[in-house]
């Protein structure tokens, strides 16, 4: 209800961006939805959905949708994701990268569970109270790209991300805040030449 009242576009934009980036029909792709979402990825053809969330109540709601094959409790940033390395074709973290939420230090853990060549879809807000967090997040994203861990495919700033809750948070008096969708592709592990 809160998300509907805020007219939050992040889930729709993230699902569309990930579906566009994915090179093959996604039905067989294994996807991890971190801080589980709304089921929009299922509507985009993703059928093998696993989810993790730090709230048992949210996991029960996710279970009631019947869209997830596996759901696990995990407080991201405090414990590792309950998945083996290189397990998922795609990982999403939508609406939870922000001040007072999931720390940007989780990025290597998201990468760990993503297959080489797999995709990561992340979002954050650009409102004034989240700018310091966003700056740190983008520095971490760029550091991982410079190190060769992944390649940025998309960083789309969206002006009408969601309805602002205060005038101070509004982008140039529009009544909305802006946000960003990022799509990264995990770099394949280079093969060593013999000889």
From TrEMBL:
A GO molecular function for this record? S-adenosylmethionine-dependent methyltransferase activity
Coiled coil regions, renumbered to chain: none
- Out of the domains of life, which is the source? Eukaryota
Where does the Methyltransferase type domain lie?
32-121
Instruction: Return the protein name.
Output: MET27 protein
Q: What is the species of this protein?
A: Pardalotus punctatus
Name the gene. Mettl27
